[in-house]
Amino acid sequence: MREVPEIRVRIVRDEPVVPDRRYVVYWMVAHHRLTWNHSLQRAVSWCRQLNLPLVIFEPLRCDYRWASDRLHWFFVQGMQDQAKTLHESSVLYYPYLEPSAGAGRGLLSALSEDAAVIITDDYPCIFVPKMIEAAGQKVRCRLEAVDSNGVLPIRLAEKTFLRAVDFRRFMHRSIGAQLAEMPLPKPLTKLPTTQVAKLKPAILSRWPAACVATISPQGLAKFPIDHTVAPVTTTGGSTAGQQRMLEFVSRKLTHYQEQRRNVDQVGTSQLSPYLRFGHVSAHEVVSRVLEQSHWTPERVNMKKVSSNQGFWGLEEPVESFLDELITWRELGFNMCSRQQDYDQYESLPEWAQQTLKKHASDPRPVVYDLEQFERAETFDKIWNAAQRQLVQDGVIHNYLRMLWGKKILHWSRSPQKALEIMIHLNNKYAIDGRDPNSYSGIFWVLGRFDRAWGPEREVFGQIRYMTSDSTEKKLDLKQYLQRYSKPTR
What we know:
Elements: E1 9-13, E2 23-27, H1 38-50, E3 54-60, H2 69-86, E4 92-97, H3 107-112, E5 115-121, H4 128-136, E6 142-146, H5 164-179, H6 201-206, H7 238-252, H8 256-259, H9 272-276, H10 282-292, H11 316-338, H12 350-358, H13 370-374, H14 381-393, H15 398-410, H16 415-429, H17 436-444, H18 468-474, H19 478-483
Parallel strand pairs: 2-3, 2-5, 3-4, 5-6
Antiparallel strand pairs: 1-6
Helix pairs in contact: 5-11, 7-10, 11-17, 14-15, 15-16, 16-17
């Protein structure tokens, strides 16, 4: 069995593995899938070495920030996929939905008493890093965190990249070796033949496993989460994610370049929610794209190592999509994994902070507060439509998301307040929010990963400027504006 590269494995609690215990635990916190998953592959490898059964422990706490019916239901749909796939398998699947804040406290520690080793996901965003470090102080066995976030290991880079072109150059020079170390498509097929693990009755009595198959959106009413943010029509889970990925690669990829700005005919992959929840692996998407394109390493053009076109030796739409999926997505993971202040205003480039400070007292054409933004009560019909799309569907069309952020900067009393509003609205409503990639988009509005632009303008200074008038000229918005002309409720 192919081993997980050591650069992807981080020892959180350095204890000897105890071979005479009852099972190996995979504590699934970010990579919520059973395929193309380095974390799961590492857990299976330990099962093989120790001839022990596997417990997949997938908990969902209820007190994370912005917890809502929308985010909970998308997560639970992923659990339902896991439960269906693992039904009658040799894996003990243990989903746990915390009924009240703090109710799950002590559960992982209790599981660790009979665990030879615990494997979890090394995800560098929101509350996950602190949660894993805290767990390392409490569990009673070895704890390893494994990185299966992207094609490049997050610890491969030895510095924080501040420009996409520099990260792209680094990525292109490193990608060949990483493509040779992809995770196994189906790691569970490598499990040893053992009895299904059993948990202590006291554990199941205090922390009952969730019967996820019977949960409905209406059933979320009993959890102490925000019930005003309703689930979206987009289906969560690996099954839906796989279907969307295959449809995009087989039918839409060749038109990606020309259709990605079409707000009515969806030309983007729409994979960001599935990548964010770990329902789909970036490794698999890249593998599918390269396989369909009949790509071979001989096509690589190292003269194009800094370019977003020409490096892979593939058609323009394919090159563009790979650049979005790898360069831009993993640039955010590089930032979040290396800078703890990635979500703070002070993490902006010095030039951006200086120009925004210089223009902080400039008169705004209008100033809105959070509630007015949230209710889409601005004078701008395009901005209002984008905000309604976010509230209703949990997404904003990619191009309009940039405009959405730029106008919040333009209409807020300070750039710091604009950042606060963007983070809140995005993380509350977006099903791809609370992720390194979404923080990249938010902070790009304020200059991260960008450069100084001229001419210098009021409020923006040298920050890149966007207007609704220019957007309306570039995009056909007639049907879009009709669809989101007023709230649905």
